[in-house]
Amino acid sequence: MDETFTLAHFSDPHCCCPDGIRVPELLNKRLFGYLKWWLHRHAGYSNEILAVLQQDLKSGHPDHIVITGDLTHLSRTEEFRRTAKWLQCLGPSWQVTVIPGNHDMYVKTIWENTFAHWADYMACDEKPPGTAPGTNTEITYPVLRIRDRIAIIGVCTARPVNPLLAVGTIGKVQLQRLEQILLETGRRQLLRVVLIHHPPVAATVGWRKRLTDADRFRSVVKRCGAELVLHGHAHRSCQALLEVPMGKIPVIGIPSASASDPRPERRARYHIYRFRRNATGWGIHMKVHVYSPNNRRFIPELEMDI
Ligand SMILES: [Fe+2]
Question: Which stretches does DSSP call E strand in 185-306?
Fold first, then answer.
């Protein structure tokens, strides 16, 4: 059996659809996001780059794609609808996993008008006990999806917060479930990839954008182990190592997948991870693909074993 598995990661596409926006929709936190989007020349998010990304991923045939949140910008129904169509073009729901970011829960919304459009892409392999079909409780976080010998574990940090903040919180109940999932998948010797929107490493982002219970998350991961943590939110490349008794866990963040930002560390990119079983456990190889505005395509920039 071929024990190699390829995983593509990107984040924060921020698909904004302000067309037809009505004043009542802006009488809340959305006003801040909307103004910021316009003031920063549409915040440098490009649909053209997303189209190139989609083509690249289609031709690269990764075994699975993970997206760590902020698919939308203002949590509008139209944004959810459009991103749902985009997800369908990217791949079937069993091959693409989505977790929400703070912009996807910018304000309190109605499930049927928003996340219901992506439900299949966010769902657990198995429904958590006690959940009825067709309800949002099917997506009780953390989400666990197992593909080959890879456990994809999605944590939700997104929740509506006041207009001046972009913080995230995991919460006690979700952390308890995360502990169980990490222990169980570890016992089965699966490679555990944890997806989380907010960076769990201190000082990666400022206080206004922090993960409020990052210390508790790190304690759980240190206690139970994981092989890789992937995040978004910072809109720049970040790499850190979480020291655990068994070694070090790579924690890797990525810029927005649609960013046309001139600063190299913030330019759109996606990562391809290649996981391979070896004598001591798992080998992880990472390849970074960066968008080149001159060539209008993604170019492999560097690769390394992590
Ligand atoms: Fe974002």
Answer: 191-196, 228-231, 238-244, 247-253, 269-278, 281-292, 297-305
Ligand 1: distance of its center to the CA of 19 in Å? Answer: 20
Q: What is the DSSP letter of 11?
A: B
Cα(272) to ligand 1 centroid in Å equals 20
Q: Which of 116, 132, 125 lies closest to 154 in space, CA to CA?
A: 125
Residue 142: asked if its preceding bond is cis (omega within 30°), the reply is yes
Q: Whose CA is closest to 102, among 218, 231, 228?
A: 231
Position 134 pLDDT exceeds 80:
no
Residue 219: per-residue pLDDT = 96
The whole-number pLDDT of residue 118 equals 93
Decide: 297 and 267 in contact? Cβ < 8 Å.
Answer: no
198 Cα: distance to centroid of ligand 1 (angstroms)? 9
Buried b (16+ CB within 10 A) or exposed e, 268-303: bbbbbbbbebeeeebbbebbbbbbeeeeeebeeeee
Domain ranges of the chain: 4-305
Model confidence pLDDT, tens digit, residues 139-197:
789 999 999 999 999 999 999 888 888 999 999 999 999 999 999 999 999 999 999 99
Task: Pick the closest to residue 200 from 252, 236, 130 (CA basis).
Answer: 252
Ligand 1 centre distance from Cα of residue 39 (Å): 16
Tell me, in angstroms, the distance from the centre of ligand 1 to residue 12's CA.
5
User: What torsion do the CA atoms of 150, 82, 117, 251 make, to the nearest 10 degrees?
Assistant: 30
Q: How far is CA 144 from CA 32, 105, 178, in A?
A: 34, 21, 9
CATH number of 4-305: 3.60.21.10
